[in-house]
Amino acid sequence: MSRRRAPTSLSIVLPCFDEAEAIGTVVESALSVGRSLVEQLEVLVVDDGSTDATAEVVEDLCSMHPEVRLLCHGVNRGYGAALRTGFAAVRHEHVFFTDGDGQFDLSDLPRLLELAPRFDVVSAYRRARRDPWARVLNGLAWTLLTNTLLGADVRDVNCAFKLFPRRLVEEADLRSEGALLSAELLSEARRLGYSIGQVPV
Which has more pLDDT, 148 or 200? Predict the structure, then answer.
């Protein structure tokens, strides 16, 4: 691996499906935080076949902000497929992704970039989940299963708050169309010899 340094350019990928009410706020937050962190920024919104006005909202943002790009699936293909579409289109040195529904606070992004000079990949974990207990238990079970089967070896496999170099998705063999994508990405990072740091958000 080459010597790591703090990112100077960043592609933010936001997969979404029927998020017309939330996506505008999420994109504006991504722009505000991203501009304060790197010299070159792009925000890619992947509309996974939405049936509401998600695409129209993002098109308006594209007309106002040159950093924003919209990628559309004609039909809903799944979370993993949306991320892979975004990853295939990124232009910058580092890639960050989170969900387009606003469940994560983009102001936590600097915490990931702070670790970038020390680790190839930075994977966040949720400090205090506000989900129902059944969903929390399912998440713990899923993390245990994927860590055991795929060797991802992280605290919160499906936490949609990850930062990594673009070369990882160029080298990795990602195939998932659904929720397995995060585990597959981390597993490929381990296989390819990338170091993984973790941070609470």
Answer: 200
